[in-house]
Structures are given as C-alpha cells and as structure tokens.
Write a structure and sequence with these properties.
With about 475 residues, the protein is α+β, with helices and mostly antiparallel strands. It contains 13 helices and 16 strands. The protein has 3 domains: about 70 residues, no CATH class; about 170 residues, Trna Endonuclease, Chain: A, domain 1; about 130 residues, no CATH class. The longest helix is centred in the middle third of the chain and has 87 residues.
C-alpha cells in the first residue's frame, strides 16, 4: 500500500505547539477548525468568540497567518506551559478532530467530549451514543505512556458498563515508536502488543491534518507466492501504516471503519476464495489419485507377493554365503593361529648368531653418531613374547634397522621441511635392509605394537584414514649429525 506523500509528510511531522483547533467560547464542547490560509479572515471571530482548545485555559486567542508554515491559532498572553505542552495540545486537538468528524458525519449520534459517566467515575475523551441502536462508544486518545495494567483497569470498567472503548494512539511520543529502517512505519510497544494479542484493532491519529493511520502487515499468500495487506490480529512488533483522512472513515459498533480496513477485508476475501478454489482442485486431484491408487494396488499386490518370494530366496542365498564366508574366515584364523604358534616353536637362527649379528651391526654405531646414545624410548624387549631365535633377528636389531631407515628417509631434506608420510611397510623395508633372514609373520605383529610404543612416546604422529603417519623424532644438533 503506497502512501500519499502529503499525508505521509503530515503524519510523520514532529510534534509542536501549533494549534489548528479551538472551541466556541459560549459552549466549549463545540470545536472549530482553522483551515489553512484563512487566518486573516478568521481573526475577528477568533478574538471575540473562540477559546483555547485546552479546557483550563482562558487566555484569549488570535490567529497567525504564516508564509512558510500552516496558519494556526495563537494566544494573546502568557499561558501555562504545563497545560500547553506539545503532547497536551496534540491530545486535545485529537479529541477535537474526532468530535468534528462524528458530528459532521453522524448528526443523529449524541456526541459529548466532556461527559462524566456513572456519577463521575469515568470521563472519556469523546463519548458517542446512538439513540437508535443504544450502542455506546468511548474514544480514548492516548499520547502519553500507559501500562497494560492501567489499560486493563479502564477497559474492564467500560466492559462492566456496556460501553465499547476505542483506543486511538498519538502519532508522536511513546505511543509511536519509530522503526530503525524505512521498511516499517511503527514498532509496537507493550500495550499495543497486548491489544493485538487480545484481538483488538489499533489506530493512530494525527490531529492537525485529520489523518488516521490503520496498521497492517504483509501476509503471505501461498496461492500466488506473493503478499497481501492484512489486519494484525495477533502479536506483531513491526507494522506498516495505511494513511487516510479521518473524514473518509465510517463509525461502527467497534470504532473506526477505514478504507484500509475495507481493502484488507477485500484482500482477505480474495485470498480465501483462491484458497477455496485451490482446496477444491486439491480434492479433485486427490480423488483422481485415490482412484488411480486403488487400481495400482491391485496390480501391485501380485508384484509385491512375487517380490516377497524373490526377496526370501535372495535372503536365503545371502545367509548361506555369509555362513560360508564365516566358516572360511574361521578356518583362516585357525590357520593363522596355527602358523603363528608353529613359527614361535621353530628356530631359524641360533641365539649366538642373532646376538653376534647385533653386536657387529653398524646400526648401533649410527645411533650413537646421530643421538650420542641409544634413545631411551627406542627399544622394547619382546623376548618373552617372541623368542629371537624364532624371529631370526635380535629385537633391538630389527627395531634399530626399522627406525633408522624411516628416520633417514624422513630427514633427508633437512630441518624445516615437511616430512613424508610412512607406513608399517616402510619399517618392514628397514628390517629387510639389515640383510637377515627373519620370520615375517612374527615381525608384523611386533611392528604394529612397537609403532604404538613410538606413538605413546610422541615419536610418531596419529595415523590417517589410510594408516599413514609421520615420524616426529627431532633432529639432533647439526654438529653431531655431521660428525
């Protein structure tokens, strides 16, 4: 809903002390509006017949004709600033514009802006009663802050006395919180959110131009994928305004009936009609689908039974294959266990030859040259698990060979370079480079455990998904390596 630029400018103008409404001095319940450009023409009557819109003010009035701003009433003497604050003037003028609208459009309705109800218990801003229908409305103009508890107390009083209370919020001040972006026109406060949650309609008023703001939200229309303006009938924080002259509005048993509300009702009816057509189309389609489904079920039943038989046969085949694989795995495991035990009982090298090979190996010398001594974390004694005579090589011998092979490969590019990934096979290659006959079946299990030992001592990094790792052993000083 695009805004009329003139209405928008007037509605968004900051509050000031400009007065465009006055009352008859003889009957201060009668309000008088000063049309723009008529200040000089109205001045004699203003001075002799009109009074300030503030009931407690008796300072005489005149008119001011302005060239850059709108004409307005002005006092001929000093006034009480407290009674003539911007908020107070806007409140009194909002009452006046509602009174003028009601008396002009509904002369048969009894209007009183000063009435005291039920022995003076309540004085609404504007009271309207239709003698033909008995409907009673109390208009409450609210520019100042108001708590939910205070509103509830007043509202319940009106309900108890069969009076519909119509709350109209001021276009400035605490009842018109401005949004941070131009996308919306108002941010509702706690009281307004409470009214929305209670199903009440909201209105905002600008009295100098006689503008009423009807809030709306952009509701989603799933039938078109677009949006349509809808009445915010539940909690909603950010709202839009549709602005229109109050003179173009109607009075109902619940308050105002603006063109915006009429347009929103029409939009809602169009959406409801589209939804009903869509529902009927869906039902028609659903009926066709049900018929097709019944036909398909009969055809599918035989196919399902055949599929069930085929699936049962396939399951039997899979079960038989699984059992066969399990039997084969069991046999392989038993064979591996037997071969392991056989390997442990065989002797492929004497204890003396194994020891002599290690004692004469250059690997010990190389470890001393690189590290100055054998690193305390390097060797693990597996003699009680696998005899060296069955393995064919001394445990420190194969561990030194495996480590130095991977160490030299990992550090060949010097410090500061990324080290290559290695696998267990790289350690096996190091043992093989020792040029000794060894039992691979026994070595494989020992190597895996020994690599775990190196990892525990932070000499190996964690393995990746492919079982690869990196050697983390730090390089000794360059003088030792070079020497």
């Amino acid at each position: 809903m695009p805004h009329d630029p003139e209405l928008l400018a007037a509605f968004n103008a900051d509050a000031d002390t400009r007065m465009v409404w006055a009352t008859e001095r003889a009957d201060r319940s009668q309000v008088v509006y000063l049309e723009d450009g008529t200040a000089r023409q109205m001045r004699p009557r203003t001075r002799s017949e009109l009074a300030c819109i503030v009931p407690e003010c008796d300072v005489p009035l005149t008119t001011h004709a302005r060239t850059t701003k709108r004409d307005g009433f002005a006092h001929l003497g000093r006034v009480d600033d407290a009674l003539h604050s911007a908020e107070s003037l806007m409140h009194q003028q909002a009452k006046a514009v509602i009174v003028s609208w009601l008396r002009t459009r509904y002369p048969h309705v009894w209007i009183d802006p000063e009435v005291l109800l039920v022995n003076g218990e309540r004085r609404p801003d504007v009271y309207a009663e239709n003698p033909a229908t008995g409907n009673k409305l109390a208009f409450e103009v609210q520019y100042s802050a108001l708590t939910v508890a205070e509103w509830t107390r007043r509202h319940e009083w009106y309900v108890d006395h069969d009076i519909v209370d119509v709350w109209v919020f001021g276009h400035v001040g605490p009842q018109r919180r401005r949004p941070r972006t131009a996308q919306f026109d108002v941010v509702t406060n706690a009281l307004q959110e409470h009214l929305l949650s209670a199903g009440e309609l909201l209105w905002w008023i600008e009295p100098t131009a006689g503008i009423i703001g009807t809030p709306y939200l952009d509701a989603f229309d799933e039938t078109t994928g677009g949006t349509f303006p809808a009445t915010p009938e539940q909690y909603r924080r950010d709202l839009h305004f549709e602005l229109s002259p109050l003179a173009d509005s109607w009075l109902t048993a619940k308050g105002f009936r603006t063109q915006a509300l009429i347009d929103m009702d029409a939009a809602a009816e169009r959406v409801a009609a589209r939804r009903e057509r869509a529902r009927l189309e869906d039902e028609k389609g659903a009926a066709a689908r049900r018929a097709a489904d019944l036909k398909a079920r009969a055809t599918a039943k035989a196919a399902q039974e055949a599929e069930a038989r085929r699936a049962l046969q396939e399951a039997e085949t899979i079960r038989a294959e699984r059992e066969a694989r399990a039997d084969a795995e069991l046999r392989r495991a038993e064979l591996e266990d037997r071969l392991w035990r056989d390997a442990l009982t065989r002797t492929i090298a004497s204890a003396q030859s194994v020891a002599e090979s290690w004692e004469s190996s250059t690997l010990r010398t190389e470890l001393d040259r690189i590290f100055g001594q054998v690193p305390p974390w390097l060797f693990v004694d597996y003699s009680e698990v696998v005899p060296e005579t069955a393995l064919g090589i001394a445990h420190p011998h194969w561990q030194a060979a495996a480590f130095l092979h991977v160490f030299n490969r990992s550090t060949m590019h010097g410090p500061g370079r990324s080290r290559p990934l290695v696998t267990v096979e790289d350690f096996v290659d190091g043992v093989a480079a020792a040029d000794m006959q060894f039992e691979r079946r026994l070595l494989d299990g020992l190597l895996l455990d020994w690599c775990g030992h190196l990892y525990d001592h932070r000499q190996l990094g964690p393995r990746d998904r492919e079982g690869r790792t990196r050697l983390l052993t730090k390089l000794p000083s360059l003088s030792r390596v070079g020497g």
